[in-house]
Write a structure and sequence with these properties.
Layout lengths: L1 E7 L3 E9 L3 E10 L3 E2 L5 E2 L2 H17 L8 E8 L5 E3 L18 H8 L5 E2 L2 E2 H11 L9 H11 L1 H4 L4 E3 L1 H10 L3 E3 H5 L4 E2 L6 E2 L1 H6 L9 E3 L4 E4 L2 H7 L6 E3 L2 E2 H9 L7 E5 L3 E7 L4 E2 L4 E5 L6 E7 L3 H10 L2 H11 L3 H6 L3 H9 L10 E3 L17 E3 L7 H23 L8 E5 L6 H11 L2 E5 L5 H15 L3 H8 L2 E5 L6 H26 L3
Parallel strand pairs: 1-6, 6-17, 11-14, 18-25, 25-26
Antiparallel strand pairs: 1-2, 2-3, 4-5, 7-10, 8-9, 12-13, 15-16, 18-19, 19-22, 20-21, 21-22, 23-24, 26-27
């Protein structure tokens, strides 16, 4: 069967056409970008029409890249960035720019609600956190959480807020634009921290809605990620270049589907993802939370299962920064070499692979240089929007390639920190599935194995793992099969990386220093970056 999945990230959408039968094949893909509008007040917003234009252009492009016709598409869904805030009117039209998960304009609203109280945990009101924890094993400990974006609009843009019909996340808005049905999927509802996860009580919790002073009329109907949300409307079909009536499934957030696409679907299976953001996630058949480390069990696409999820907000984004701002000489060399012969182009299939090969010539430990990947603050295992990236221990003998390698190692150090933080409450797996764009680099795969001391496994189509998990979910829905069993059947290990004992000593030393850098610099981060 042919399925279209829109893998909707922070800066671009990758539209994928899958054929699922006895295996899963990526027939074609197309990518288009959109802007992220960063403002000095902590804003991080996007434009819905840029989203839609990207969807339309990539969908049309798919059929130029494959022999499949629009009439052969049997299902579609979205796998999107999460914890955004999209306020819509009764027709499903956005009434202001959507605020992404990176937006932290609501710091004042967060402090006003959560920062008060005699007893506090992680800087938050103990009473309010306990109320949340009893209902859904989670709680708002960050100004980036969706409810504060919602409250910011209420407080700062009352004329806009008065036009609000429903409050959605990114996936929900896109589903609504395709089907005309305004809903939220359970995973995006959970991400508001207003959702009750207790068995038999699943849905909006009116006590939490009242505590956070949210208008209950703004909360839409909730469906499961595996449900059919509706059918593609004539208008959406005409714009996308598809045929009307295609089943549109609930879909959901990227964290919801990556474990399924990774094949990490047995309780206790752990995967690591590195894309624009990064995370460590362990698949569980129960829910738990570690409020001190900001880790909770978020909903899986399969009802009754959870992803124990620890996040690094800027992972691959740090390497993108390196390409744009630090690797200028190497970029020039790359373009010169790849313009000479097709052989070099096939060898260096991407600039990132080329840079990885270049920095593999630098010794493990980056000759003493350590990088902190907190380039837009940090959430786990410590929450601090003032934290920032930095290079530590630069000496006159260090060069640019030491710094570039240190960026990759810094991402891996933080991922190890997340892995060890998860081990406090759950048992993570000995073999880790590594997925996302970062896993395409053999250097980073080996580096992650060496730094974590775990066996690292990769799979085919790893860069499209969220889309692949969403496609498996859609296929399971069409065939009325169990999505976890289908994932086990379809997703196979491609390569395994074993930790190298000879690299252990230098990485252990650097990792110990890495973990001390935040505590040593927290006060100066606040002095430099703190907002009144």
């Amino acid at each position: 069967m042919n399925i279209i999945i829109y893998d909707f990230g922070t800066s671009s959408v990758k539209t994928c056409l899958f054929d699922i039968d006895s295996g899963i094949d990526l027939l074609a893909s197309s990518t288009a970008s959109y802007n992220l509008y960063i403002s000095e007040d902590g804003g991080a917003e996007q434009e819905t029409e840029e989203w839609w234009d990207a969807l339309c252009s990539t969908t049309h492009d798919l059929f130029q890249r494959s022999d499949v016709t629009p009439g052969e598409i049997e299902g579609m869904a979205f796998c999107s960035q999460m914890q955004g805030t999209v306020l819509v009117d009764k027709n499903g039209n956005a009434i202001r720019r959507p605020m992404t998960y990176l937006d932290q304009k609501g710091m004042g609203e967060y402090k006003e609600c959560m920062g008060k109280g005699i007893i506090k945990v992680s800087g938050c009101s103990f009473y309010k956190l306990v109320r949340n924890l009893l209902v859904n094993y989670a709680g708002s400990t960050s100004a980036k959480d969706p409810v504060w974006k919602y409250k910011w609009v209420e407080n700062h843009e009352p004329e806009v807020f008065s036009k609000t019909y429903k409050w959605l996340d990114v996936n929900d808005y896109l589903v609504g634009r395709c089907t005309g049905r305004i809903i939220r999927t359970a995973d995006s509802a959970f991400a508001t921290f207003l959702y009750d996860t207790r068995k038999g009580k699943e849905g909006w919790n009116q006590g939490l809605v009242k505590m956070y002073k949210v208008d209950p009329e703004h909360l839409p109907e909730i469906i499961e990620s595996t449900d059919r949300a509706g059918e593609l409307t004539q208008k959406a079909a005409d714009e996308l270049g598809l045929v009307p009536g295609i089943p549109v499934f609930g879909g959901g957030g990227d964290t919801t589907f990556v474990s399924i696409g990774a094949g990490a679907v047995k309780p206790g299976d752990t995967h690591i993802y590195v894309g624009t953001s990064g995370w460590v996630s362990t698949f569980l058949d129960y829910q738990t939370v570690d409020i001190n480390s900001m880790i909770t069990g978020v909903l899986s696409a399969k009802h009754g299962f959870f992803n124990y999820y620890a996040e690094l907000e800027t992972a691959g984004k740090c390497f993108e920064w390196v390409v744009n701002h630090l690797a200028l000489d190497e970029v020039g060399v790359y373009f010169q070499k790849t313009s000479v012969t097709d052989d070099l182009e096939s060898r260096y299939t991407s600039l990132y692979e080329y840079l990885s090969e270049e920095i593999s010539k630098v010794s493990p430990g980056a000759n003493g240089v350590i990088f902190t990947p907190w380039m837009h603050g940090n959430r786990c295992p410590f929450e601090d929007s003032n934290a920032a990236g930095m290079f530590f221990n630069l000496r006159i003998e260090n060069g640019k390639k030491d710094m570039i390698r240190a960026v990759l190692e810094g991402i891996c150090y933080h991922l190890r920190w997340l892995l060890e933080s998860e081990d406090v409450k759950v048992k993570t797996s000995d073999n880790i599935r590594f997925v996302g764009g970062g896993s395409l680099s053999q250097l980073m795969c080996q580096m992650l194995a060496d730094i974590t001391g775990r066996k690292i496994e990769t799979i085919d189509h790893s860069q499209e793992v969220g889309a692949m998990g969403t496609a498996i979910t859609v296929a399971a829905g069409i065939r009325d099969m169990d999505v976890l069993e289908m994932s086990k059947q379809l997703v196979k290990v491609k390569h395994t990386y074993i930790p190298k004992e000879e690299n252990k000593e230098v990485y252990e030393r650097n990792y110990k220093v890495f973990k001390k850098l935040y505590k040593s610099n927290a006060s100066v981060f606040k002095e430099m970056n703190g907002r009144a």
